[in-house]
Amino acid sequence: MIKAVIIDDEINAQDLLEKTLNRYFPNKFNIVEKCDSVDLGVRAIKEYEPELVFLDIQMPEENGFELFKYFELIKFEVIFTTAYNQFAIKAIKRSALDYLLKPINHLDLAEAIKRFENRNKGNFAHKKLSLLLENLNVNDQNVSKIAFPTIEGFELIHSNQILYCKAESNYCCIKKIEGISKTVTKTLKYVEEILPATSFIRIHKTYVINLNYIVRYNKINKEVELTNGEKLPVSFRKEEEFINAILQNN
Questions:
Q1: With a cut of 50, which residues of the chain have pLDDT below it?
Q2: In the prediction, which pLDDT does 166 show?
Q3: DSSP codes of every residue in the chain
Q4: How far lies 144's CA from each of 21, 136, 155, 161, in Å?
Q5: Pairwise CA distance, residues 239 & 65, whole Å
Q6: In terms of Cα–Cα distance, which of 122, 101, 41, 121 is closest to 93?
Q7: What are phi and psi of 239, to 5 degrees?
Q8: Rounded CA gap, 109 and 81, in Å?
Q9: Beta-strand pair 2-7/52-56
Q10: Nearest 10 degrees: CA dihedral of 72, 194, 172, 95?
Q11: Is the pTM of this model over 0.85?
Q12: CA 201 to CA 18: how far, in whole Å?
């Protein structure tokens, strides 16, 4: 069984999450403690050494992000349970961590648990949480180091190394400027949301490109040429937005 701790200042939210876990994942979880504050959560984690922590963000006295300052090495995985603002959600996504928006849907919970079971443990959790805290402390539009989820774990890529991103069903291929491609286990929509909006734009249902690596645009063929020589299509409905973005970026 997976040893877990729930940290949420709302008792009803604690109980609902526990009931949902017991109902849809019988005999999979052992909830060793339910806590209503960061302080009690820290004590429970140090006492029980759980594999997984369900952590609310917005709590009185200390928010959920404060939890990590009490640990030198993070040996547990975290799934955030939150109704927090969009900036925090973007920071969590950039760190390849999971979150569940309240009210929690059991299907979303199942996906998060599946990803948890496929993840690496130990130092990988520490690196991801360190990256989260770093992302929370920088300007939202200027975050460059992003953790992209992969089948093996996650890949750290600077946004200025990305030439373009291509949709591949429910996955996404990231093409780097040196020619290397990386497949991440998220959709293009997800990847688009965590990239800096000042540098990246969707030009087609299949492509998001880095504006900094555009060489030219052919209005007749509706193709954009990038620095590596590749030509990508620009859809009719995205053309005006694309041209405006180029003009504003120069």
A1: none
A2: 97
A3: -EEEEEE-S-HHHHHHHHHHHHHHSTTTEEEEEEESSHHHHHHHHHHH--SEEEEES--SSS-GGGGGGG-SS--SEEEEEE---HHHHHHHHHTT-EEEESSPPHHHHHHHHHHHHHS--THHHHHHHHHHHHHHTS-TT---EEEEE-SSSEEEEEGGGEEEEEEETTEEEEEETTS-EEEESS-HHHHHHHS-TTTEEE-SSSEEEEGGGEEEEETTTTEEEETTS-EEE--HHHHHHHHHHHHHH-
A4: 36, 12, 13, 9
A5: 41
A6: 101
A7: -60, -50
A8: 10
A9: parallel
A10: 0
A11: no
A12: 41
pLDDT at 75: 87
Instruction: Give the type of residue at 179.
Output: G
**Cα separation of 194 and 176, whole Å?**
16
- Residues recorded for the chain: 250
> What pLDDT, on the 0 to 100 scale, is given for residue 179?
92
Residue 143 has what pLDDT?
A: 55
Question: Rounded to the nearest 10 degrees, how much is the dihedral formed by the CA atoms of 208, 213, 219, 221?
Answer: -70
Give the span between the Cα atoms of 227 and 137, in whole angstroms.
Answer: 32
Going by C-alpha positions, the residue among 99, 161, 158, 100 that lies closest to residue 134 is 158
pLDDT of amino acid 249: 66
> How much is the pLDDT for 140?
52
Question: Are the C-beta atoms of 80 and 97 separated by less than 8 Å?
Answer: yes
Q: How far is the C-alpha of 11 from the C-alpha of 105, rounded, in Å?
A: 18
